[in-house]
Amino acid sequence: MRLALALVLLTACGDKETTFDNIVPGGGGGGTTGSRPDAPTSDGADASTTISGHVCLLLTNQQTLTSCATTGAGNLTVTLGTATAMTADDGAFTLTRPASTTGLNYLVTGTNLKTSLVPFSSTITSLPAINTADYEAMTVANNTANPGTTSGALFVQIKRGTSIVTGATVESQPAADAVVLYDGTTSATWTTTATSTYGVAWLSSISATSTTLTVTSNSTPTMFANIPLQNGAITYVFAEIP
Predict the structure, then answer these.
(1) Contacts with 99 (C-beta within 8 Å, 6 or more apart), sequence order
(2) Where are the alpha helices (DSSP H) in 77-164?
(3) Would you tell me how many other CB atoms lie within 10 Å of the CB of residue 141?
(4) Nearest Cα residue to 119 out of 16, 228, 233, 241
(5) Which of 95, 110, 7 has its CA nearest to residue 57?
(6) In whole angstroms, what is the distance from residue 139 CA to residue 134 CA?
(7) Of 154, 199, 164, residue with least CA distance to 63
């Protein structure tokens, strides 16, 4: 199932379906259209009146986007449309499912936390988040920008099916305000070459409310359009390519 991106909802390659309500396939450039970002875990509760998930507080290696703290993620606010919920100490939450989830984004906010933006998907229940101090330390260590009042940041993890894609590069339109970085050996050590062990690209500042990504792997470009951005926040994208 192929379509285009986000951090949440549409269709992906093969037999697996990921539904992303608010990302629209890109076009042009002679490349392919990307699958909507794939989800780390499956909700499996589309018909339910509630949505359960957890906030994945990234405390050790932030490059993984999936290595979650087991404690210390409590009292964070998760918002989806008009629905809100507070997290338990392990980051778990349950909120009322909005009547329509089309075009909605999860927002995760809290004291000393960089706001997370994750486009809604019925298959995404793990919402990454980073402490403000840890994120700022990453920007200092890598001499890159920190999103502020006029820009947002973006992390994108690239997969082909369930496999991490190494050696991929990412461009954005509009272009990022700083060089695109890729996962390296530690959270403090990113590179400027291409994705590595975790398949993650970091665009630390984009001055726009949305962007289109072009992911290139083995000389083949795949486009992901209408990725939402928010000033001062971090958008997380799980992108599946053909």
Answers:
(1) none
(2) 132-141
(3) 13
(4) 228
(5) 110
(6) 9
(7) 199
161-208 confidence digits (pLDDT tens): 999 999 999 999 999 999 999 999 887 889 999 999 999 999 999 999
- Specify the pairing of strand 200-206 against strand 181-186: antiparallel
pLDDT for the residue numbered 176: 95
Distance between CA atoms of 165 and 157, rounded to whole angstroms? 8
- Find out whether 157 and 199 touch, Cβ atoms under 8 Å: yes
**In contact, 7 and 29? CB cutoff 8 Å:** no
Which token pair is 238?
A: 């799980």
Phi and psi at residue 138, to the nearest 5°: -65, -40
Would you give the DSSP letter of residue 199? -
- 98-103's contacts with Cβ under 8 Å and 24+ in sequence apart are 101/9, 101/21, 102/21, 102/22, 103/21, 103/22
Return the exposure string of 204-234: e unless at least 16 CB atoms fall within 10 Å of the residue's CB, then b.
Answer: bbbbbebbbbbbbbeeebbbbbbbbbbeebb
Q: pTM for the whole thing?
A: 0.82
Calpha distance 184→199 (Å, rounded): 10
Low-confidence ranges of the chain (pLDDT < 50): 1-29, 36-46
Contact 5, 37 (CB under 8 A): yes
The structural domains of the chain, ordered by start, are 24-41+145-240 (2.60.40), 50-133 (2.60.40.4130)
> What's residue 34's pLDDT?
62
